[in-house]
Amino acid sequence: MTGLRWKGLSIGLAASCLAAGLALPARAADQGPVKIGVLVDLEGTYADIGGLGAVEAVRMAVEDVGGSVLGQPIEVVSAGGQNKADVAASIARQWYDSGVDVITDLPSSAMALAVMNLANEKKKIALVTSAGSSDITGRFCSPYTAHWTWDTYAMAKGTGSGVVAQGGTDWYFLTADYVFGQALERDTAAVVKASGGRVLGAVRAPLNTQDFSSFLLQAQASKAKILGLANGGTDTTNAIKQAREFGLTDSMQLVALIAFLSDVHSLGLKVAQGLLLTEAFYWDQDEATRAWSRRFFARMKRMPSMTQAGAYSGALHYLKAVKAAGSKDPDAVMAQMRRTPIEDFMTHGGTLRADGRVIRDMYLFQAKTPAESTGEWDLYKLVRRIPGDEAFRPLNEGGCPLVRTEKETRP
C-alpha cells in the first residue's frame, strides 16, 4: 500500500474509512478559499469600537498566518449592517450562500442573534467579537457560535465586585429605560449585594436622553457614594459630561458599566478622570499589547478598542484551527477551537466553552487624571485583574440548551 496515494490518503486507509462508513477528511484545497466576513457598524454608535478598525484587525490576523491556510488563499469581505437585525441577516445569508465560512464582529446584540440563528441553520460559524448580551451564550447559544471578547455578565461582575472591594459599597443607578439597561442594572445590583454592598435606589432615563439634570439630582439626593451608569454610547458620555458640570463627581464616584477606550478618549481626561470601567484589553498593558497596538495605530491612526483586538484574536484562533483540523468543515473547526488554548497578545490560556463563551481574564481600570497621563492615548491605570473563571457566568447558570443536553445525556 505504500507509495499509492489518493488525495493524501493511502488507498488502504481510504478503503478502511469507506468500509466503516466514515467520511474521508476534507482538505481545505478541496473546498476553495477560506473566506471571512466582517459585519460591522460603519457610521453609527459602534463605528469607533469596531468599524473599519475591526476589518483591519482581521486583515492583520490573515497576514500573521501568511495569507493562506492549507494551500488556499484567505479572503476577507466586509460590509456595514446599519445596526439592524434584518439588514445583518440579509447580508449574512448572501455571504454564507456565496461561500463565506465565518462571520465576525457583529456590533449589536440584535445583529449578532440574527446572524447566529442563520449560522446555526446553515451550519456555518459566527464569531461575536463586539456585541455583549450574555444571552448569546445563554438561552440562544449555538454550537456554531463563539462569544469572544466580553459580555454584560462580565461587565457587571467585574465592575460591581471590583468597586465594592475598593470600598464603594453604597450604589445608585442611572439606567437606560429599555431591556438592555434594565438587565445591566439588575445584574450589577445582584453582584453589588452579593459582594456586601447596598443599592440605595435607581432612576430610569429614556434612550437618547439629552438632558440628565433631573436624573442626576435624584442620584445626588440618595447620598450614595457610587453612581452606576447602566447605559451605553452617547447616553453614557452625556451623563458623564453633565455629572462633571454639575459637580456631582465631588460627592459620587462614577462607574461606567459599559464603556470603551474610545469613549474615554472622546471625553478627554479632564472630564473622564476617575471613571471606573471593565475591559478585556488595553493597549498599554505589556510589551505584547503595545507591539500589536503600534502596528494597528500605524494603519488606523488610533489605538485599538478591546473589540478590535478581539476581532484579531478570534480570526487568528479560527485560522489556526482550520490549519490544525486540515479542513474548514465547521464542526471540525469548532471542535479544534474548543480543544486548543487561546494564546495571543490579549489572551493567555483562554478557553472556548461548550456554550460558546470564551473564558479570559478581564480588567478593572480607572481613567487617569490629566496630570498622570503622558500622552493622548495614555488613559487607564489598572485597578484589578479579574480571573476568567471569576469574571464570567458559570457554565451551568446560563440556561444554554447545549449544556442541558450534555448533562441529560450523561450516563
Features:
single chain; 411 residues; 4-stranded parallel sheet; 15 helices; disordered C terminus; 18 strands; 6-stranded mixed sheet; disordered N terminus; alpha/beta; 20% strand
Describe the overall structure.
The chain is 41% helix and 20% strand. A six-stranded mixed sheet has the order 4-5-3-6-7-8, with helices on both faces. It has helices at residues 11-19, 51-64, 85-97, 109-122, 152-165, 179-194, 213-221, 233-245, 261-267, 269-272, 287-300, 306-325, 330-339, 388-391, 401-408, and strands at 5-6, 9-10, 34-40, 68-69, 72-80, 102-105, 125-128, 145-147, 170-176, 198-205, 226-230, 253-256, 276-279, 342-343, 348-352, 358-359, 362-367, 380-386. The longest helix is centred in the C-terminal third of the chain and has 20 residues, at 306-325. α2 (51-64) runs parallel beside α12 (306-325), α5 packs parallel to α6 and α12 packs across α13.
Q: What secondary-structure arrangement, pairings included, does this model have?
A:
Elements: E1 5-6, E2 9-10, H1 11-19, E3 34-40, H2 51-64, E4 68-69, E5 72-80, H3 85-97, E6 102-105, H4 109-122, E7 125-128, E8 145-147, H5 152-165, E9 170-176, H6 179-194, E10 198-205, H7 213-221, E11 226-230, H8 233-245, E12 253-256, H9 261-267, H10 269-272, E13 276-279, H11 287-300, H12 306-325, H13 330-339, E14 342-343, E15 348-352, E16 358-359, E17 362-367, E18 380-386, H14 388-391, H15 401-408
Parallel strand pairs: 3-5, 3-6, 6-7, 7-8, 9-10, 9-11, 11-12
Antiparallel strand pairs: 1-2, 4-5, 13-17, 14-15, 15-16, 17-18
